[in-house]
Amino acid sequence: MDKLNYQLLLSVYILTFLIGLPANILAFFTFCRKVYRKPTPIDILLLNLTISDLIFLAVLPFKMKEATDNLNWSLPYYLCPISSFLFFSTIYTSTLFLTAISIERYLGVTFPIRYALGRRPRNAVIASCFLWLLGSLNLSIVYIVPYIPSNDNSSSSKLQPNPHVTICYDLFTKEQLNILLPVRLELFLVLFCIPLLICCFCYINFIRILSNLPHLGRRRRLRAIGLALGTLLVFTICFSPYNVSHVVGFVHGDNEWWRHFALISSTLNACLDPIIFYFSSAAVRSAIHACVNGLKEKMHIIKCRRCCSADKNTIKSINHI
C-alpha cells in the first residue's frame, strides 16, 4: 500500500477515536446510572455494547501507531496479540450485542404481556456473559496462529512469537493459512450471517407490528421504525466488508491485501453506535441535551466576560483621555 492509503487508515482511526470516545463515555456513565437505579434487560445489553465499543476505542491508539509506521509493528511484541485480540473480538461482540438488542425489542412488541412478566435483568446478565465468552473463544485464534509450526523459513513468514517481529498479524505462512482461513469462514457464518439473519427477522417483524398498532402515536412509531432501519443499516454497512473478506480469502486461499480497508467501516461503527444509544434511551438523550446546554452556558459566560473586559478597557481609555 502507498503512503496515501496509510494516511486514510490513520485519518479514520483518529476520527473514530475523537468522536467515539466522548460519546461512548457519556453513554457508559448514563447506562451505569440507569442499571444501578433500575436495571432492565435492554439497558444491560446497551451497557455491554458500550463497553465493547470502549474496549475497541482503547486499542485504536495502537492501530494509529501501526498506520503511522506504514503497518510495521514497532511496539513491544507482547502488545501485538493483545491489541489484535481486543480489536477483532470487540468487532464481533458488537454484532452479538446488536443482535441481542434486536431480539429484546422483537419480543417486547410481539409478546408484550408475556415478555413483560418474564423479563428479568438476570437473564440479560447471563446472556451478556455468554456473548462475551462466545466472541472471545472464537477470536482466540489470534493467540494460536503464531504458534502453528511452519516449514517455511522465508522472511515473509515471520509471524512466530519473537520480540523482533516487524509485522503484526498480517503475514502468514501456508500452514498458518490452512488453519486461519477456515476459522475466518466460520466467523463469517456463525458470528456474522446468523446474527444478520436474526436482526433482519426481528426488525422486519418489529416494523410490521408497529405499523399495525393503531394506538401508537405517529411520532413515536416513526422514531421506532427509523431506529430499527438505522440499526440494520449500520449492522450491514459496518460489518459486511470485513466479513466478506473472510469468504474471498478462503476462496483464494490467501490473506487479502484489502482487508485493512474493509476494517474501515467496522472501525466507524464505534462512533455510529452512540446514535443508536441516542434513539434507544431517553436517559442518553437527556444526558446529551444536558451536556450541550452546559456547553452553551459556559460559552455564554465566557462571551459575557470578554464583553465586560472590553467595556472596562474602553472606560479606562476614556478616563485617561
Automatic annotation (TrEMBL):
Subcellular location: Cell membrane
Keywords, sorted A to Z: Cell membrane, G-protein coupled receptor, Membrane, Receptor, Transducer, Transmembrane, Transmembrane helix
Membrane topology, from the record: Multi-pass membrane protein
Annotated transmembrane regions: 12-32, 44-62, 82-103, 124-148, 187-210, 222-242, 257-279
GO cellular component, one term: plasma membrane
Keyword Cell membrane: yes
All residue ranges annotated as the G-protein coupled receptors family 1 profile domain in the record: 23-277
InterPro entries per record: GPCR_Rhodpsn, GPCR_Rhodpsn_7TM, GPR40-rel_orph
Superkingdom, taxonomy of origin: Eukaryota
Keyword field contains Ubl conjugation: no
Gene Ontology MF, one: G protein-coupled receptor activity
GO biological process terms on file: cellular response to fatty acid
Family: Belongs to the G-protein coupled receptor 1 family.
Protein name: Si:dkey-211g8.6
